[in-house]
Give the backbone structure.
Amino acid sequence: MSPLKIGICFHYFVSPGDYEGESVGSPIWRETINELINDGLLESSNGDEDQTYRPTDKLYAYCEALTRMPLPVREWKTIV
């Protein structure tokens, strides 16, 4: 998943408003939103004035799983 997709997912995970990043309106934005809808992570809000897209339960589960993942730790291994 691209950094843009992850950023959009986390935006909708924590924010009640629409994503307002610099890519909004660009071709990559439209493609990314369509992919998130097709993946079942976002859905259209059907005319809600405050939000064009809404997070789904799948998006909440995905973001919660990402937040539980520990940061990687570098370890040096000795090869004998």
Q: What stands out?
A: Residues 3-14 form the longest helix (12 residues).
